[in-house]
Design brief:
Helix content: 25-40%
Number of strands: 7
Largest sheet: 4 strands, antiparallel
Strand order of the largest sheet: 1-2-3-4
Structural class: alpha+beta
Radius of gyration: 15 Å
Strand content: 25-35%
Length: 158
């Protein structure tokens, strides 16, 4: 399988916007969200910032030339700490459980060296299992995990 992680340019904005509908549909199992009167989920708030803010990074995932997912990353600067965070991570269902997510996450962590905090909603047990497994393997167990404000957070350095 020829899987590529591609830094998203402006031409990919509509691709991510469209894939976001599938992502929100999947995520609706864990959050209270419904489609609007037009039958679509609301547009992703601040998506344009990923092309206008130097602390935001966007990627598309391709199998051959077919789009199969995306990743949105933020670099958060706070008084206490600066860190990278995965804002959104999506692989279409038919491509899951094929180690694509692990490969993409590893590429992301290797591309953005530094402190990381990856979080999942407390209600999203599949995401918790995925990220715990990925981060545990990536860090060889050298990460911390905490529960805060209804989120499970893994912190580590890449």
């Amino acid at each position: 399988m020829n899987i590529k992680l591609v830094e998203a340019s402006h031409i990919h904005k509509d691709v991510i916007k469209n894939l976001m509908q599938f992502y929100v549909y999947d995520f609706s199992e864990f959050v209270d969200v419904d489609v609007e009167v037009d039958g679509l989920f609301a547009a992703y708030k601040n998506l344009d910032d990923y092309w206008n803010d130097e602390n935001r990074f966007s990627y598309v995932i391709q199998k051959d030339e077919i789009y199969i997912g995306f990743v949105l990353i933020r670099y958060i600067e706070e008084e206490q700490r600066n860190h990278f965070s995965i804002a959104e991570f999506f692989v279409m269902k038919k491509y899951r459980r094929k180690r694509i997510g692990k490969s993409i996450a590893t590429q992301i962590f290797n591309s953005h060296k530094g402190k990381w905090e990856v979080f999942q909603k407390d209600s999203n047990k599949p995401a918790q299992l995925f990220w715990n497994t990925i981060i545990n393997a990536y860090t060889k167990g050298n990460f911390k995990e905490r529960l805060e404000d209804g989120k499970l957070i893994q912190s580590f350095t890449s």
